[in-house]
């Protein structure tokens, strides 16, 4: 099981929207049941990253993240989304 931490400024709105897009992406690519997504604020992400396999955030990467990091901004703006999706799928291919 791959544990994905999805963070935004407050841990409520933006992270929830991006989490839905990541979930659809992963399910559509055969990873159903192989991941768990938890949302949180970026302030909480540093401490929680030690128990995560991947952090995706809609903010700038803070110092102290203890696992791989992917920017979630393309899932909001659409700019660079294909590249971000490829990063997520590549990570899953290596870790699921």
Condensed summary:
InterPro entries: PTS_EIIB-like_sf, PTS_EIIB_2, PTS_EIIB_2/3. The chain is an alpha/beta fold. Helices cover 45% and strands 22% of the residues.
Tell me about the largest β-sheet. Answer: 4 strands, parallel
Order of helices and strands: EHEHEEHH
Q: If you compute it from the alpha carbons, what radius of gyration comes out, rounded to the nearest whole angstrom?
A: 12 Å
The tally of helices reads 4
Tell me the count of domains: 1
Number of E-type strands: 4
Strand order of the largest sheet: 2-1-3-4
CATH domain topology: Rossmann fold
Which class in CATH terms? Alpha Beta
Nearest-integer average pLDDT: 94
**Helix share bin:** 40-55%
Spell out the CATH superfamily: Response regulator
* Poorly predicted ranges: none
Measured distance between first and last alpha carbons: 7 Å
Could you characterize the architecture of this molecule?
The protein is of the alpha/beta class. The chain has a single domain, classed as Response regulator (Rossmann fold), CATH 3.40.50.2300. It has helices at 13-28, 42-48, 73-77, 81-95, and strands at residues 2-8, 35-41, 54-57, 69-71. The chain is globular. The protein starts with a strand and ends with a helix.
Index terms:
single chain; 96 residues; alpha/beta; Rossmann fold; 4-stranded parallel beta sheet; 22% strand; PTS_EIIB_2/3; transferase; PTS system IIB component, Gat family; PTS_EIIB-like_sf
Question: What is the strand and helix layout of this fold?
Answer:
Elements: E1 2-8, H1 13-28, E2 35-41, H2 42-48, E3 54-57, E4 69-71, H3 73-77, H4 81-95
Parallel strand pairs: 1-2, 1-3, 3-4
């Amino acid at each position: 099981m791959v544990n994905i931490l999805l963070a935004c400024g407050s841990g409520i709105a933006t992270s929830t929207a991006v989490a839905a897009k990541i979930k659809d992406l992963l399910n559509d690519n055969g990873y159903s049941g192989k991941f768990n997504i938890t949302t949180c604020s970026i302030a909480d992400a540093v401490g929680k990253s030690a128990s995560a396999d991947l952090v995706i955030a809609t903010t700038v990467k803070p110092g102290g993240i203890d696992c791989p990091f992917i920017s979630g901004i393309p899932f909001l703006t659409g700019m660079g989304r294909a590249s971000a999706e490829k990063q997520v799928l590549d990570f899953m291919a290596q870790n699921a």
